[in-house]
Amino acid sequence: MGIAKLANNRRFLLLRNDVIIPLHMIHLLPLTISKNVIERLSGLRYELTTNKPLKPFVDKAPDVEIWNNYLTEEKNNSTTDVNWFGTRWLYAETYAYRRIFEAFQLTPPFAKYDYFKHLKCQQLESSLPSMEVFSNIFKIDLKQKSPHSVKDLFSVFIMLSLWGNQCDLSLSSGAVNETALDYDSLVSQQKTQLLINDLPKVWEYVNSNSEETIDIVLDNSGFEWFTDLYLADFLISNALAKHIRFHVKAIPWFVSDVTSNGFDWMFEFMSHHESLIDLVTKWESYLENVIFKGDLNYRKCVGDRNWDPTYSFVDAIQGLQSLSVLCLRTLKADTVDKNWMINGNSPKAQGL
């Protein structure tokens, strides 16, 4: 428990400071609003560092009942208070992240604010050299024969995805060991450093089953997310899967975990670096059928510009023209109806 206590303290204290700093940089919102969030986070820090009993959640998110029911069960099964250092390490740590989420949920202007975004963006920026190194090593058409067999490449891409897991911002700075990205190093690490190596068995299963869909439950953003995308590309290019389904976190989680915005950030970042443009163009081509819902996503699709009303939607959507796109949105403008904010009676479905 002593080691767990130290690890939890270090993670949480680092996390809390990194969360609060960017809040002071938000000048467009009233001070009282950002102050509410800061006070809740400071209160949470005090509760946890002084080992106070864990509190039920009071926000309106869909998972509140699940969390509170679990806390009730813990209390019923315990002869003492359920507190930070006395309960299970995993539960205590996830509870802390969920309470941070609650602090923002209880302050509506911040309800959808990713309070770890600045750290994830910094991590992505610092990962660029490693991303370029790896993309140069494997600058090949994955569908063609290469000097290495598909089986060998399968192990290499799995190993790369595995080593990418070192980039965890909740424990480190997200640094990447570029010396581990050499092809021969990845092969040799598989033989010498894996404590358990079931890759031959996994390869036999994947190669013989040709799954319709392979699900990848994502962990960290930045370089690890990049390696996961590369792995997905490899699996599809070699007909080891027809579809890849990514699972992301529903809320900002463990600092660096991928959320639904991860696709936007990664692809936009790659599109601004010449060495990665061909790669991101290829990956975007896999997104064959996309449905965008809501006002915000619609505005993103058309660049949030003041287009002439007669301008073609196909032209306005610009970079998405290579995809099969459907945009679903109810109009929100008093030029349509004075009650536009409440009636939602002017929807449209635009596609190409």
Task: Please describe the structure with a list of short key phrases separated by commas or semicolons.
mainly alpha; disordered N terminus; three-stranded mixed β-sheet; 352 residues; 3 domains
Poorly predicted regions are 1-11, 20-28
Radius of gyration: 23 Å
Q: How many strand segments?
A: 5
Query: What fraction of the residues are assigned to beta strands by DSSP?
Result: 5-15%
Estimated helix fraction: 40-55%
Series of secondary-structure elements, N-terminal to C-terminal = HHHHHHHHHEHEHHEHHEHE
Major sheet details: 3 strands, mixed
Q: Reading side by side through the largest sheet, how are the strands ordered?
A: 3-4-5
- Give the tally of structural domains: 3
Structural class by SSE content: mainly alpha
Separation, N- and C-terminal Cα atoms: 57 Å
The chain-level mean pLDDT equals 77
Count every helix, treating DSSP H or I runs of 4 or more residues as helices.
Answer: 15
Shape: globular
Catalytic activity: beta-D-fructose 1-phosphate + H2O = D-fructose + phosphate; beta-D-fructose 6-phosphate = dihydroxyacetone + D-glyceraldehyde 3-phosphate; L-glutamyl-[protein] + S-adenosyl-L-methionine = [protein]-L-glutamate 5-O-methyl ester + S-adenosyl-L-homocysteine
Protein name: Sugar phosphate phosphatase
InterPro entries: ARMT-1-like_metal-bd_sf (IPR036075), ARMT1 (IPR039763), ARMT1-like_metal-bd (IPR002791)
GO molecular function, one term: protein carboxyl O-methyltransferase activity
